[in-house]
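We modelled the chain as a single entity of 208 amino acids. Its sequence is:
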Amino acid sequence: MEHTAHTTPRYTDVMFGYCGVLIDWRPRRTIEGLYPAGVVDMFFDPADPHGVAYYDDLADQGWSEERIIADYEREHGPAVAWIMRLYFEFQRLGFYDMIDGMPTLMRDLHARGVRLWGLTNFTVRGVREMHGKYPWLGLLGGTVVSASEGIAKPDPRIYGIAVSRFQLDPTRTLFVDGSARNVRAACAVGLQAVQFESAAQLRALTLD
């Protein structure tokens, strides 16, 4: 089905979060097969106050891999610290694929003259690897990466960085994210924002 009606797009710019919007991020894949299932479960235990989620947040804020590994070793001991090193080393395996329908939507938006951008809580190396694995991400005119800025969503300052750097008109910019909290923060600074459900949902909001 063709989606190229010659009407004016609803937005001049669309800015995407990465994980859960553009990229199907499956972190368990980074170490599955390297350790027994029980060890993998332990590593990703959401109840661990110094588990993967805790250190992912610190990585998003700019902590280096070596600093995280050292801190993880202090918390959990050297016998298991190697798992964190492998988690970083094989991070690329966690980038399972692009979200269904998103490459086509990005192409169609770009063809209609809508400028595309990224705003992600992730590491600089991780974003670089995503771009190397998925050429469609090259349609983004630029990406604000939290680890590079030392500020992560939903801190309102990171939205301001994106608006300034990409010269966005917030009233004509749609921000798309998988987190309701991040969407609320974007709305609070004046951006148009929606929580991601599917490529079809975004097509209906932007092109159809």
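As a brief sanity check on the tokenised model: Residues 29 and 185 are 30 Å apart (CA to CA). The chain has ten helices and seven strands.
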